């Protein structure tokens, strides 16, 4: 314990020499791709690669944002910490992917006034208008109750896990590495949310009612996620069936449409950054 | 609270014993392990965690005399601080 | 004084720790439960003023740092409730006492956070003051409380660092940002000084708590240490600290429930508690 009585040895001593391992989630560095070779291998379609990184990054950022809204509002402290962990994992993936998209194809980054100190990942996150975003409506969907949150997280994690598993062999080594890291994280997210769905479905009458309702409301989300990534359908359908089986729940009808909550989400998320386009943070 | 009280033990790195770090509540053993990972090992990977229901622990008395105050009512043995080896590990 | 009480007094006098199953005077236990619980409540209520900015953090890195920081506070609350539970109370009971107003939390969290600079100021001044208060508690006489504090203090130093770093970065930004930092420091300085509690002359319980080894320094000692530590940091930052004259009636008003955000903070907590009831019930079966 460093004594705080002596100003020469206060908690600021380590300010320039932080150990990134002890900074929560490696936040001790500014550039998420710091130290990584930016080279894109020959033969890789840069435009397609950037679009893929952006799409995966947007999805992670939007879902992370919604999960982070639970902070200080979860059913108990254990769950508050767990939801923040999932949100932080996804935010970490988003930073890497947005930064990679900008390196691969600088044209995707919105133009900012000359001399702007805003890094590319933040230009993409905070200065891009809704039509340019490529995440799902499912990810941007406003939060419902805790049952809605764990059902959505389970559906989104199930699809994303298979998508990332297949990208671990991608010719772009950076994307492949991000995918490999993501697979570990997503395996945990799917497991954690799946256990909660089962617990709630098998809990009380009230929790079962709410879980069934969430599943029904999110039926179009499942349809949307599979439309976006049709190649993973068989793999993920099997997982969903397993969960429904363990929860003793029926598969809901896939009708209905999802509202577009992206504009509201972005209006809030981008408000401070846009109020200070020349700001340093 | 959500489920029973669990005691959490963490091995900070290879070569060290598991050390009692605190407690938490969880719906079942599997969730207790996951909660312990999220709450007590947020900053490091590669640790080993034990969770055990507090009411499953049998503890000795601190001395011959019976304590006048039972610290946890019906769950007398919930906080096994005797398992401690040296300092709380740097997590 | 009987044998048990003598044994207890001797243990405390030689700076050894009291552990959960040891005999302890009822007054010691009650004082501890109250202090640890109020500390836990402060961590949990303290999530709100900064947590409000998570969805609007102006860079992805800041969003990450802020979320991780507020998450730490939830963890601190949990470690402390866990320490309190070794004294024969449940977390449910303590949360009920928070929401009924029977137990308090730190007055500082009843002030509003209208600007993003407040995230930095809270890290620098509020977590900084908390560190001054809490480092001595790592040696407090009750074992579980002291061990929880060791872990908490390690994490708090990162909190203070991220806050200072945010303010430093903003001071290198635009004129508008520099003004935001100064305005925020102007608002938080005196409330931060109040975090150490009333002046020693008006703090009737200090002597008993110090004899029991629950407290290690008086309010005024800790406050003076904080002021001494902070002055050169303010200079390095390029901000001016307002004077150190504190309106103690304001502290009384805020602690007794009449601060700018008391009602809002408790309502937020109550709402989360109520909204989560069906989940806790389902998981407890
Ligand atoms: Fe804290
Ligand atoms: Fe803190």
From TrEMBL, chain A:
NCBIfam families: PA_CoA_Oxy3. GO terms for cellular component: cytosol. One of its GO terms (biological process) is phenylacetate catabolic process. It holds the Pfam family PaaA_PaaC. This is Ring-1,2-phenylacetyl-CoA epoxidase subunit PaaC.
From TrEMBL, chain B:
InterPro entries: PaaB (IPR009359), PaaB_sf (IPR038693). This is Ring-1,2-phenylacetyl-CoA epoxidase subunit PaaB. It comes from Nocardioides lianchengensis.
From TrEMBL, chain C:
GO terms for molecular function: phenylacetyl-CoA 1,2-epoxidase activity. InterPro entries: Aromatic_CoA_ox/epox (IPR052703), Ferritin-like (IPR012347), Ferritin-like_SF (IPR009078), PaaA (IPR011881), PaaA_PaaC (IPR007814). Pfam families: PaaA_PaaC. This is Ring-1,2-phenylacetyl-CoA epoxidase subunit PaaA. NCBIfam families: PA_CoA_Oxy1. PANTHER family: 1,2-PHENYLACETYL-COA EPOXIDASE, SUBUNIT A (PTHR30458:SF2), PHENYLACETIC ACID DEGRADATION PROTEIN PAA (PTHR30458). GO terms for biological process: phenylacetate catabolic process. GO terms for cellular component: cytosol. Gene3D superfamilies: 1.20.1260.10. It comes from the Bacteria.
